[in-house]
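Extended Data, panel c. Modelled sequence:
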Amino acid sequence: MLTSLLFILLGLVTLSYFMTTEETPTVSIERQLTPLIFNDKSIFIEVKDLKKEEIAQVVSNAVKTAEIKDGGVEGIYLTENKQILGLRKFISLIKGNFIPGANLLFIPDNFSMGVVNAETKDFFILLKMRSLTDIFDAMHSWEEKMFFDLHEFFGVEVTTETKYLLTKEFQDGIVKNKNARILYASDNQIVIMYILANDTSVVITNTKNAGEEIMLRLAASQVKK
């Protein structure tokens, strides 16, 4: 009986210890970087509390000052409190008109942006989706406001000479045998375009050289998989 009593007391003491011990705090895990293509270099830019114009300016500056080899790609990742921004948060911060929808299965939140050093330093955005049908209508609808949303990222100012681009229509085009929709300036220079790079990828950029380099890296990443 004495032994049983001792075991009962020991059990009560142990139970009391676990009931009064504070719950172990959990550490939030930052969103992990998952590059969609191989980057020769990556940089991270904190954009907390920045306005659209300020975000576009820091990205444009990063494109201009990128130090990468010829044909190289530098990934640019925007962060808030060290958390990498997803597509929907990025669109929200720049007050963009692209509507990817809430279903991450159709158009994932993981996207890439950066600079390609191909004759000139060219900005790009790479979007992923489950299939082209999931994004085609959204991209086509975005055409009306794409230049307005992204012109500052490409270093193009809206002036009396360029304001016509705000309402100019995109045209069909081909980049490396892939369908594209292209916004041309009055001198037939590409201002901005998006390329249907493959069944699950769309590249937004402003030169064919940049688009071709991103598509080469997309193909290489698929071979590795």
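The longest helix spans residues 2-20. This feature is highlighted in the accompanying rendering.
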